[in-house]
Write a structure and sequence with these properties.
single chain, 5 helices, seven-stranded mixed sheet, 2 domains, alpha+beta, 188 residues
Length: 188
């Protein structure tokens, strides 16, 4: 028979979280929390990939877009998931999926103390929330893949590829906009 002292107590609730791995110029956006006690400790001053809870019935992509708008007053395109982890905090079990995202507008820190763009070798320079530590290797790998990925060149790469196939100066403004829109549509 198992005694009470031998029983592992599972966190009081399970929370589904979506996080944005926003990569730009070979760096990823990290944000410093300005509040929070939901995990069972003071989360102020800890760093995270921005995002938040998925509401009941909400699509994870839409939830992430909503959270980034609320936290950073910004617009993003949500791409493929990078990694999903489960982390047990004292007060909750966190089920977090980190998505590759593209920033489409400037950010304004609404709910964070600070934000930094970190390169792969700078990720260990901030104090990450424990759950976010669990995604760092996948984020590093993604950052390196994105910096060398020729199969998904992005809008600038697509324009340069199109220029390489045409005489210099022959791409029209409309053609450039069409290439950019095709790239953006590929994220949904």
């Amino acid at each position: 028979m198992t005694s009470v002292s031998e029983v592992t107590i599972v966190a009081a609730c399970e929370v589904t979280i979506v996080a944005a791995c926003i990569i730009h110029g070979g760096k990823v956006l990290a944000t410093e929390r300005s509040y929070g006690h939901g995990a069972g400790f003071d989360e102020t001053g800890w760093w995270e990939f921005p995002g938040g809870k998925v509401e009941p019935g909400e699509d994870p992509h839409q939830g992430l877009k909503r959270e980034i708008h609320e936290e950073l007053s910004a617009t993003i395109e949500v791409g493929d998931p990078i990694v999903t982890i489960v982390h047990d905090y004292p007060e909750m079990r966190l089920n977090m999926t980190c998505f590759l995202c593209r920033l489409l507008s400037p950010i304004d820190l609404v709910e964070h103390l600070n934000a930094r763009w970190l390169g792969p070798d700078e990720l260990d320079t901030v104090r990450w929330l424990p759950a976010d530590v669990g995604v760092l290797d996948a984020v590093r790998r993604t950052m390196r893949e994105e910096s060398t990925n020729l199969d998904k060149p992005g809008a600038v790469g697509a324009i340069l590829a199109a220029l390489g196939q045409r005489e210099p100066g022959t791409l029209t403004h409309e053609e450039i906009e069409a290439i950019i829109n095709d790239e953006r549509n590929g994220w949904d």
